Amino acid sequence: MKQIYICEDTITGIYSALHDAWKECRDTQAGVELRGRTQRQLFCEYRIVEESEEKALRLERMIKHHLGYNAYWEIYHALLSTDDRKGTVVFEVLQEARKIRQSEKIMEHLGCPAVADVFSMSRSVSNEAHRYEEFIRFRELENGILFSEITPKAQILTCVADHFEDRFPLENWIIYDKTHKVCLVHGVRKRWRLVWGELFNERAAENISEEERKYEFLWKRFFHSVSIKERENPKCQQAHLPFRYRGEMTEFSCAEDKIGL
Amino acid sequence: MLKLMQTEMTLGEKLEILSDAAKYDVSCTSGGTERKGDGEGMGNCRKAGICHSFSADGRCISLLKILFTNECIYDCKYCVNRSGNDVVRTSFTPEEVCTLTMEFYRRNYIEGLFLSSGVLKSPNYTMELLYTVLYKLRHEHNFQGYIHVKAIPGADSRLIQMTGYLADRMSVNIELPTAESLRLLAPHKTRKNILAPMRFVQQMSAENQYEIQTYRHVPKFVPAGQSTQMIIGATPESDYQILHVAESLYKKFDLKRVFYSAFIPVNEDKNLPSVKEQRPPLLREHRLYQADWLLRYYHFEAGELLDEENPNFNAYLDPKCFWALRHLEEFPIEINYAAYDMLLRVPGIGYKSASRIVKARRMGMLDFEDLKKMGVVLKRALYFITCKGKMMYPIRMDEDYITRNLLNTKEKLPEGADGMSFRQLSLFDDMGIE
């Protein structure tokens, strides 16, 4: 009977499930699936694993200790992806790592299908995170807070947090992930935090400061004048900057039509 | 009159004029420095650089790319801002540039500042202004983001030195590939004048390297190195000449990047190609960039890619395929045993997949399926490699045969870069016959 562990789609949740799976089934087959996104199969036993900080920390320590930091980050990124198989393939990677001589080189073993899967998931998540480091646009609200909304596929907030914290240490800023309903909040000279749940006051996010309009306008003006007409090439632009990111970007917001640029 | 216009002009108008004037400068990269913020100001730098947007021409916008002023005493024939042209002239004040940079940076619009300038009054006067901007940004606004600044040829070396300690990258444009072309099109500039600051920056960086190794807290001089750019297609040089110039710039001046800029006619002049009949030579520019990458990352030499008999790149094949086809005696190579340097030379294998292959084959033999997952472009690579001693399909190692097949794989070219209004007729093209 194959054991399948069901968990929440959070890092803590999946780590907890992986922890139990590792404890009980490391020598046999097992699966780790997400609650609400699993298909029942024959000859499988299902068990729900509750989120547990303690288990998660223990598993995290184990991965870092045995597979090293690089592999840990690859796995961490893979677990943020939208792929439903992520828990199971990571479990298989952990099993595969026991078989090779130097476990910390597991992510170089691309000949193994599970490793190749984790590798490609991690690549796609970190690519998306990088895109958001590029394309996030802040607007200044009346109270001086810099605010940004995004709709990413994967849960990339924690991947961009350190970058923006290092970049704007003296600013109050918020990045709101509309897809997963999470806020990344940073206060002046403080560490960032994640806040789960709907945005508490959506109206407040619309009240922008006086200066804000001016700089939005200046930016749009710059954006248009810096392009060379003789070389215009919308396909190339689209390849680098796909449409799905443009909705939340200042330079593509519809206000530009009114300005007539 | 000019004074009057300046006082009337808004920041928006200035920005539009001075960014429009700067747009022909190609380099907009923000990489080369890794710097953490110190927690007391704003900004940091990433080694790989970050693009923040892409303009309608598909080029990345990473830096706030502006001229400090477009008032210029020089009369270079290819330039919009040549003194003989009747265009609206204006200048920023240092404070304006700082505000724009800081406010754009705060909103994550840009990665930093790219500051170039026309030559106002004299090279020294202009360089001083640029220095003032950088000083204010770094010390008054505590800005730690990326700054790329132009060194003005002819300016005092001490000014260049002081500016260099504040900037991340410095560049002097070499403008045209050869000294004769420069004499023809930019009568006020000389090759010697351009190379002098370049040599100076190189020497300062070398000294600075030594200091950094010896002492603990040394200010860094131009940590992201220097770059340059040249205009392609305004003068009759061949690709071979251009590539040679680029190679010697990399070797003799330790440049980080050489940029190529397809000539876009903005002025009418008897020494320039005429405005009407020409579209910018984008395909040529693309091939040069491809070759440039081969020089910097793939251990190729300019002499290998082109020679006097073939002075120009093939319009239909990228430089790497072109090279491989003329050296079929070296192929096919065995993926599981070939040296890293040789893997780099296979069309369809990039430097990332090459290093993945080298690592992965330590764990076990690789097959074509595995290569595919690592990002190797098999449709191009399959003619040149074997896995476990076998080729993917039975292939004749014949130049014509492989060329024909490679041409059918349809290389992904930037739109409009192919510039082909006709193509060679082939029996089996577009006929649906397999």
From TrEMBL, chain A:
Top-rank taxon: Bacteria
Pfam families: DUF4130
All residue ranges annotated as the DUF4130 domain in the record: 86-251
Database matches in InterPro entries: DNA_repair_put, DUF4130
Listed NCBIfam families: SAM_7_link_chp
Entry protein name: Putative DNA metabolism protein
Lineage: Bacteria, Bacillati, Bacillota, Clostridia, Lachnospirales
Automatic annotation (TrEMBL), chain B:
PANTHER family, alphabetized: ENDONUCLEASE/EXONUCLEASE/PHOSPHATASE FAMILY DOMAIN-CONTAINING PROTEIN 1, TYPE II SECRETION SYSTEM PROTEIN K
Name assigned to this protein: DNA modification/repair radical SAM protein
Gene3D superfamilies: Aldolase class I, Photosystem II 12 kDa extrinsic protein
GO molecular function: catalytic activity; iron-sulfur cluster binding; metal ion binding
NCBIfam families: rSAM_link_UDG
Keyword list, A-Z: Iron, Iron-sulfur, Metal-binding, S-adenosyl-L-methionine
Keyword Iron: yes
